[in-house]
Structure formats: structure tokens, C-alpha cells
Amino acid sequence: MADLLLNPITLTFLLVLFISASFTFTTIVLWVVIAYFKSSLRATYFEHRDRTLSRINYTQNEVPVLLGFFHPYCNAGGGGERVLWTAIRDVQRFFPYVVSVIYTGESNTSKEEILAKVKANFDITIDANSVVFVFLQKRYLVEDGRYSRLTLLAQSLGSLFLGYEALEHVVPDVFFDTMGYAFTYPLVYLLTGIKVAAYVHYPTISSDMLNKVKAKTSALREQKVYGKSTIWNMGKLIYYRLFAKIYGYCGNFADIVMVNSTWTKGHIENLWKRDADIVYPPCDTERFSELAIKERERIIVSVAQFRPEKDHMLQLQSFAKLLNDNPAFREEKETKLVLIGSARNEGDEKRIQSLRLAAKELKIEDNVVFEINASFSKLLDWMGRAKVGLHTMWNEHFGIGVVEYMAAGLIPVAHKSGGPLMDIVTEYNNKPTGYLADNVNDFAAHLKTAIELSPGEYNDIAVNARASVCDKFSELVFGDGVLRSLRRCLT
Length: 491
Ligand SMILES: *[C@@H]1O[C@H](CO)[C@@H](O)[C@H](O)[C@H]1NC(C)=O
Ligand SMILES: *[C@@H]1O[C@H](CO)[C@@H](O)[C@H](O)[C@H]1NC(C)=O
Ligand SMILES: *[C@@H]1O[C@H](CO)[C@@H](O)[C@H](O)[C@H]1NC(C)=O
Ligand SMILES: *[C@@H]1O[C@H](CO)[C@@H](O)[C@H](O)[C@H]1NC(C)=O
What we know:
Blueprint: H1 2-6, H2 8-53, E1 65-70, H3 79-94, E2 98-104, H4 111-122, E3 131-135, H5 151-169, E4 174-177, H6 184-192, E5 195-200, H7 207-222, H8 228-251, E6 256-259, H9 262-272, E7 277-278, H10 286-289, E8 299-303, H11 312-325, E9 336-341, H12 346-361, E10 368-372, H13 376-385, E11 388-390, H14 400-407, E12 411-415, H15 418-424, E13 435-437, H16 440-451, H17 455-472, H18 475-490
Parallel strand pairs: 1-2, 1-4, 2-3, 4-5, 5-6, 6-7, 8-9, 8-11, 9-10, 11-12, 12-13
The structure holds 2-acetamido-2-deoxy-beta-D-glucopyranose (NAG) (4 copies).
């Protein structure tokens, strides 16, 4: 008998039996759980829908379509919220039968307050008659800083509860996630079968994060350090890989995927293994594009916070090379570099101090102006006088500052990487819109070319650059992109 049991064939058989039994068991349990929640949502479907619609004056003849915007931080007033409200306004304009349901965690405020703030912050007018707010109580589950360990996973699991709370209030016809909670897509799909749309600003996990841990692990291995930190890093790597797999799996439950830039598109397509459409968010370039494109002064501006990654040192070095190679630029043809930025904390102050020192050492301090904490009108003043806008950050994901230069009629000289390379300083109407560089020599050379452009040449590039950004990153083009994507599931 014992012989029979220990027989490898019998053992394998038992093992396979055990695995398939537990697999079947898990499947059945999952199935039962899903069926339970599904039927519980179905039981209240019409009641909750009617109750939601009763909170507004829906006056169209057609059957309303409920478009649910999942945006727990809708009152934050940042770039993501500009995207949200612009999208809602455009949907209201073009689809009068669509009622926007906004799932938000701002449980303390009222609809009127939120809409007033949207008007004040973004100058966007929302028709109160076709929006309904659903106030969620469980937003604390996705709060930053709530979890000290396994933050990604914990927040993602938290979003499942938040997503279910949203569906409990009302099941929309289309679920539109505008904050990147990808874990909610399979939940929504499995429980309701409705269409899921996503606008992704930023991947929850990026290959940059993975690569960082990977590099650290292999460095430790090379040094033959096999202590706690190596094990910790290897564990982290496995965790990230696993998370990326699940994240990719979740992403596949979305029917429509929009991303905000080429950088995000690359990451999302890689992780989710599917296509995503770029819909650039609208940039507020209006105030800058009112500045006249006329004869400008020999001024190079740099608008950037004094953060290390902005690489102001590269700006000073390039400018020093420009002045040293062209001594006339110091006095007769005096050329200035104006560094505009805010000092928000002690770190910034220190960096500014060391930049001032560096300017002295490079002997360019007479031609460099530090404009710290400038007001917006002061900024506009510089942008209206200067001829060139300088940007030196490596691999910036987008680079709104460069867009603003171009809108303001400046010739951009930007870092040849990231957003400036892929999205912004690209040819428009087959004509250049500025210059790209990635080292001191190239930066200095391009600065010289840009500063010395004749009025006619300057005008050509500046006009083209302005047209390019005002077209590509306008609200109109954004609205077009969003509506084109959503139309597939709204009609
Ligand atoms: C709906 O319309 C009525 C009458 O026009 C008005 O009194 C009421 O305030 C409106 N309700 C909403 C939610 O706008
Ligand atoms: C809600 O409002 C109260 C009083 O107005 C305030 O003290 C509290 O901080 C608010 N809570 C949140 C989460 O904003
Ligand atoms: C996309 O979103 C990310 C995260 O909010 C932001 O850093 C980036 O600048 C955005 N891209 C564009 C084109 O606005
Ligand atoms: C800039 O503003 C910050 C606070 O907003 C302040 O602490 C700092 O002293 C200011 N710096 C200058 C140079 O005005």
C-alpha cells in the first residue's frame, strides 16, 4: 500500500488533482461572489438611475445616456481637473442627451461650490442641468500617504472598494476613468458589462521605476553583496513585475484608451499591450499668445522652478560658452540670460545661491539676471521682450514651459529628449519651430543662431511655432479628440 502511494505516478496524479480542485474551487467562489454583487447592483439599477435623474431637470426627448466620470479628486484644481472639466463641457455641447455623473470624494462641498470653483479657476462654464455629483465616502482608501508598505497595490485594491461604492450609487452607461484607477476596469466590466473609457495622464507603474530597481539589484549582485538589501531589492523587483502584469491585465478591460502625451502612450502601450490614442490636454496659452511678435531684444529667458533636474547649470555653461566664443555678445551686442523661477523652500534658495556663484566663476554674472518670485505680469513682460526661450531638462515627460515660450513668440532652444523632442518642438507645416540640443556646444551654437536670426527669419519661426502650439494643444483639438473617441460608445 505504502509503495503504491509513494509511486511517482500516483504522487503526480494526486498533485494534479489537488491543483485542479483548488483552481476549480477558487473559480467557483469568484463566480459566486461576482454573481452576488452583480445581482445586487441589478436589483437597484432602475431605482438608482431614476433617483439620479430626478436631481436635475432633464429636458431632452431622447433617452438620457449616463456618462460616469470617475474622478475622486475633482475639486483639486490641477492639470488633471482642467482635462476633466473641459471634457465635460465639450460633451455637454455636443451630446445634449448625455448626463455627466461625476464620482467624487469631495464629500464636504456642494455642487454649486464645485462648479463655481471650476468657473473661477479655469473659466469653464458647466451647465448644471446635465451634471450630477455622486459623493463617495471611501476616498480615504486611495489617499496618498495612507499606506506605508506596498503602496501601489494597497491603493489599487482601495480603488476597487471606491469603484464599487460608485456603482452602488448609480450604474452609468459608460464608465470614464480620468484619474488612472485601472483596477476598477475589470470590476466595472465584470459587474455591469458597461463600456469603460480611460484617459491616462501617467502610468501607475512605469518601466522607469522597474529599471531603477533592476539597475540597483544588478549593481548589488555585481558587488557580490548578498545581504538584506539585495534580497529586499529582488523582492521589490518581483513585486513591481507582478504589479505591472496585473496592471496590464486590468488595462485590457478598457474599450477606449486615451493618453496625454507620447511618453505616456509609449508606457501604456508597452504595459497594456494595446493601442492608445494621444489626446493632448488643453494648455492655457491665451495670455502668452497675445504678446506681439515684433522686433525682440537680445534676451534669452529660462522659466523653470529651481529644481535640480531642470539643470540650470547646463544653461549657465552654455551661455558662458556663447559669450566666450562671441566676445561682442558681452557689451556691444549685449545679450542677457534671465532665469525666472520661484524659490519655494530652503533647497531652492541654496541652489539659487550656488547658481549665482557659478555665474561669477564663469564670468558671466554681468549678463545673467535672476528674477526670483516674479509676478505673472513681470513674467509676461520678460516673455514679451525676449527673443529666445531656453529649456535644459533631460527627458521631461512633457514641458509646458516650452509650449508657453512658443505661444509667447519666443524661439525655443530645448533639450533633445522627452516631450520637447517628441511632442513640442516638432516641425509644423513642414517648417521648423525651434532648436533642440543635448550638450553645451550644441546649446551654445543654437542659442547663437536663434539670437542672430534676422527679423524676417525670426518672424517666420516664431509665427510657425505659435501656430503649432496654439493648434496642437488647444481646447478645440482636445475636445475633438475626446469626442471622437467617446462617440463610439455614446451613440
Ligand atoms: C428644475 O426646474 C425648476 C423649475 O424650472 C426649478 O425650480 C428647479 O430649481 C430646477 N432644479 C434643478 C436641480 O435645477
Ligand atoms: C469638512 O469641513 C469641515 C468644516 O467645514 C472641516 O473642518 C473639515 O476639515 C472638512 N473635511 C474635509 C475632508 O475637507
Ligand atoms: C500628462 O500628465 C502628467 C501627470 O499629470 C504630466 O506630468 C504631464 O505634463 C502631462 N502631459 C501633458 C502633455 O500635459
Ligand atoms: C520667494 O517666496 C518665498 C515664499 O513664497 C519666500 O520664502 C522667499 O524668501 C522669496 N524669495 C525671494 C528672493 O523673494
